[in-house]
Amino acid sequence: MKAPSLRKLNSLKREWQKRLHLLDWKISVGFxxxxxxxxxxxxxxxxxxxxxxxxxxxxxxxxxxxxxxxxEPDEREQDVEDTVVHELLHCQFAPFxxxxxxxxxxxxxxxxxxxxxxxxxKRANGRK
Length: 128
Hints:
alpha+beta, Collagenase (Catalytic Domain)
């Protein structure tokens, strides 16, 4: 698979920001290395991250840079659209917050399910 450009990443962000009704948010997107993603997510094999400020309706999304794909094998890591949708959904859930690890897990599971469903619908309609 050809590595996506920053232009492609921004295009996906704009498309899904509109689809998810987040046009009133100021959201930037970019690539980040694996060490940075591990640091800000505190997880072992992150492929993306979202730092959001719900009260300001602002967010910064990072996607694993293509040069790190081979270092952290994950069949989803090359599907940057999946990562962008997932991280944008964190903006929708940002106002809910969470107090415990179990609440964080429930939100992650919900975001994973919604991401898969939305991408399946889009791709089933022949729009890549």
